[in-house]
Amino acid sequence: MFSIDANELMGLTIRDLMIPGDKVAHVQIGNNLEHALLVLTKTGYTAIPVLDPTFKLHGLIGMNLIMDNIFGLERIEFEKLENMKVEEVMNTEIPRLFLNDSLEKGLDLVVNNPFICVQNEEKIFEGIFTRRAILKQLKKHIHLLNNNQHNK
Ligand code: AMP
């Protein structure tokens, strides 16, 4: 018989639920906007992390930021895609989580963000925490809870 409760769920840490860094699409400092647009288009993600060669997290770049930067007053300035670097456009004011942060802290942050970057004490990128990960976990617990009640 399964025994689960809210404490078990809330006892999970970000480390338990995050997508590890090696499975996360990213771009590097120095890449141009054309490359970022290609990665975003091919993966279908709305935003991805910007890292340096040591895997330090610098910010996020998304489709909206790129588009916003190439729209000139009179025309779309396509040449900027090749000439501008991701670090000129990325958002550096991003919420961050640490590996040992609680699920509750993660929940607070994903209310307003589709995903949150996870880093270690040295600001090295460790992965991302997504709404999907929480929903999957919640679904698992509700399923177990239902089974538990049917078996009583
Ligand atoms: P999801 O909750 O899976 O719909 O993901 C929400 C957002 O998180 C996506 O639109 C991406 O911006 C980001 N994301 C999710 N998975 C990945 C991944 N493997 N690599 C890069 N970004 C991701």
Structural descriptors:
single chain, 152 residues, alpha/beta, CBS-domain, 4-stranded mixed beta sheet, 3-stranded mixed beta sheet, 19% strand, elongated, binds adenosine monophosphate
Could you please describe the fold and organization of this structure?
The protein is α/β, with parallel strands linked by helices. The chain has one domain: CBS-domain (Roll). The chain is built from eight helices and seven strands. It has helices at about 5-10, 15, 35-45, 65-70, 80-85, 85-90, 105-110, 130-150; strands spanning about 20, 25-30, 45-50, 55-60, 95-100, 115-120, 125-130. The protein has a four-stranded mixed sheet with strand order 1-7-6-5. It is elongated, with a radius of gyration of 19 Å. It starts with 5 loop residues before the first helix and ends with a helix. Bound molecules: adenosine monophosphate. Adenosine monophosphate binds near residues 46, 47, 131 and 132. The site of adenosine monophosphate has 14 residues, from strand 3, strand 7 and helix 8. This is Cyclic-di-AMP-binding protein CbpB. Keywords: CBS domain. InterPro entries: CBS_CbpB (IPR048125), CBS_dom (IPR000644), CBS_dom_sf (IPR046342), Diverse_CBS-Domain (IPR051257).
